[in-house]
Amino acid sequence: MLMSEILMPFLAAFIFAYIxxxxxxRLAMAKIPExxxxxxxxxxxxxxxxxxxxxxxxxxQHEIPQIRQQFPQWIxxxxxxxxxxxxxxxxxxxxxxxxxxxxxxxxxxxxxxxNTVVTKSITTILKSSxxxxxxxxxxxxxxxxxxxxxxxxxxxxGKIGNAIPKKLQATIFPLAIEVDSLLSQYLRGQVxxxxxxxxxxxxxxxxxxxxSAFALGTFTGLVAFIPYVGFMISLCLSLLAxxxxxxxxxxxxxxxxxxxxxQVLEGFYLTPRLVGERIGLHPVAVLFxxxxxxxxxxxLGILLAFPMSAICLVAFRFLKHKYFSSQWYKAN
Length: 332
Prior knowledge:
By secondary structure, the protein is an all-alpha fold. It is built from twelve helices and no strands. Helix 2 (34-87) crosses helix 9 and helix 9 runs antiparallel to helix 10. The protein starts with a helix and ends with a helix. It is found in: Cell membrane.
């Protein structure tokens, strides 16, 4: 855990530098000095991140009071749907007690006061670091590292390239170019995929009639970067919301159809066009990478899981090619 806390600001800075570096290059091509171009790119990144956070907080403020108001009706719908099925096994539940306890719990956890929701969210984030001072220190450090990475990006990687022995450069440089191409497709294209999926699922759930459609749709799009796991969590949440709102009915089937079509859209059009063809990682390998990197680096590790496993696959392909083309393998 200590190592992950130390590496977190540097990893975050590197990821954002990689995403923002093309913007800095475009600014520099417009005759803006390198230092100013890097600074402007950092500010644009801060503005974009702040906008996303404020959008999520605004969404949270709007949806939580609605959830609290709709919760008793959800319990009633669950009762109407579940009671006949439990009666088959001669099981009876005290629904009034269940509703009272569940409503009390929801009332405790969710507040109508939007400011309270925001305060609790911020407090939770701050408590996840060792201290408030440490949180802000890591944030400042990440911004500092981000600026200098953007400023010296070409110089930094040029120095690394020059340090590689001449006889290895012909091997390593093509691999580095392949990794860069793969990561650029993934990191930059995935943002567009998330945006399109957020709009698609939000609109689809709204047309079905699911309340909190915008919240669920936006969440589904934002967690699309987590392979398989993000989709399953979003599907379960949407099915639960539809079940509690409508009980058993066609709406449940429509939600399943929507998410099936969403997967087809992502897998056969969005990902190939916007991210590039998947490189062929097996689902088990992706899930293993999610668990390993998530354990080592927390939430940032989940973000890194697919890119890092893709890099490992590039290295594995290279070693596999070298092995099968080696004299040792071909020898009788």
